[in-house]
């Protein structure tokens, strides 16, 4: 009896979860994939390393509800060789729920992209997640990880002036610590972000570098993205979110998610119906029905 009740409760929760999944609006803008990479080194499945990694990733998801940046260290048993480090950084304008959702999505993608890899890093539009057993926390790293430029607008001096004004704001220190910067001039918008483990001066140095390379590399393009290992700068003409690249993958994913949700919902509904009918039948015939006792 209590088993049946547990099963009913389980399916009911399951059903509710799927219902809410249905009605929640998709936040595909923050889920857009930017880049991902894994270390060559692999850990053996089922090893203590895997357990530590899972505990770090769980901490990351929980923490993302409360803050836009955090770091984690799980010390190794035998010195520093198997110490594991993890970090996440959400875009500075994301609230708890959106940040947590983005980070959960990034971790699920890391799970497929970096299966059994000792280290992995993944950047979505709205968040960055990285883990490794080599120290990277608090280390400024200006390696170029991703660089993309949109189509050239040709030489349009007004457009270029606005673009340069936006980039200048993103790359220049005003004396305060600003790890997240947004800027706009006319129809040109820009955004820049450091990972929170950099000091204000390291962040400023990283952003100056990113902005300089973006200006030099994307010349007269309508949009440009430059991601260094610990900071990035991006600009776009006609709205930051309407760049129109990499959106198809996302729609496919959403369709798949929706199909899966419908399937699971139907299975849960049928299961609920079966449980309900068995209660109903028992209620109708009380103790008369033989097959409950018959087997025992
Ligand atoms: C990371 O872990 C792997 C596998 O256990 C090990 O071979 C490697 O030396 C470790 N790297 C560091 C920097 O500790
Ligand atoms: C890591 O997080 C702790 C608090 O959780 C903080 O005190 C420390 O400064 C952080 N380290 C870096 C490098 O950000």
Automatic annotation (TrEMBL):
CDD domains: Gnk2-like. One of its GO terms (cellular component) is plasma membrane. The chain crosses the membrane at residues 260-280. Keywords: Cell junction, Cell membrane, Disulfide bond, Host-virus interaction, Membrane, Repeat, Signal, Transmembrane, Transmembrane helix, Transport. It is found in: Cell junction, Plasmodesma; Cell membrane. Residues 1-28 form the signal peptide. It comes from the Eukaryota. It is a single-pass type I membrane protein. Belongs to the cysteine-rich repeat secretory protein family. Plasmodesmata-located proteins (PDLD) subfamily. (Microbial infection) Interacts with Grapevine fanleaf virus (GFLV) 2B-MP. This is Putative Gnk2-like domain-containing protein.
């Amino acid at each position: 009896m209590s088993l049946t009740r547990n099963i009913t409760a389980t399916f009911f929760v399951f059903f509710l979860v799927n219902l809410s999944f249905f009605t929640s609006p998709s936040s595909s803008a923050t889920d857009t994939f930017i880049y991902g990479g894994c270390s060559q080194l692999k850990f053996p499945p089922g090893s203590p390393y895997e357990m530590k990694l899972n505990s770090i990733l769980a901490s990351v998801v929980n923490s993302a509800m409360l803050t836009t940046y955090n770091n984690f260290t799980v010390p190794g048993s035998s010195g520093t060789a198997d110490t594991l480090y993890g970090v996440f950084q959400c875009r500075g304008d994301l609230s708890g729920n959106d940040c947590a959702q983005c980070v959960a999505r990034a971790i699920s993608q890391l799970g497929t992209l970096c299966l059994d890899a000792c280290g992995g890093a993944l950047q979505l539009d709205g968040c960055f997640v990285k883990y490794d057993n080599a120290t990277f926390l608090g280390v400024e790293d200006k390696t170029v990880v991703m660089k993309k430029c949109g189509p050239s607008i040709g030489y349009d001096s007004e457009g270029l002036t606005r673009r340069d004004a936006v980039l200048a704001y993103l790359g220049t220190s005003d004396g305060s610590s600003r790890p997240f910067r947004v800027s706009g001039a006319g129809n040109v918008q820009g955004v820049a972000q450091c990972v929170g483990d950099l000091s204000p001066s390291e962040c400023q140095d990283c952003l100056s570098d990113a902005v300089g390379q973006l200006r030099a590399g994307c010349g007269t393009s309508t949009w440009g993205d430059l991601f260094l290992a610990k900071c990035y700068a991006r600009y776009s003409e006609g709205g930051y979110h309407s760049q129109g690249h990499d959106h198809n993958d996302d729609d496919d994913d959403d369709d798949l998610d929706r199909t899966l949700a419908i399937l699971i919902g139907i299975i849960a509904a049928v299961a609920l119906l079966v449980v309900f009918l068995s209660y109903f039948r028992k209620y109708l015939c009380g103790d008369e029905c033989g097959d409950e006792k018959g087997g025992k």
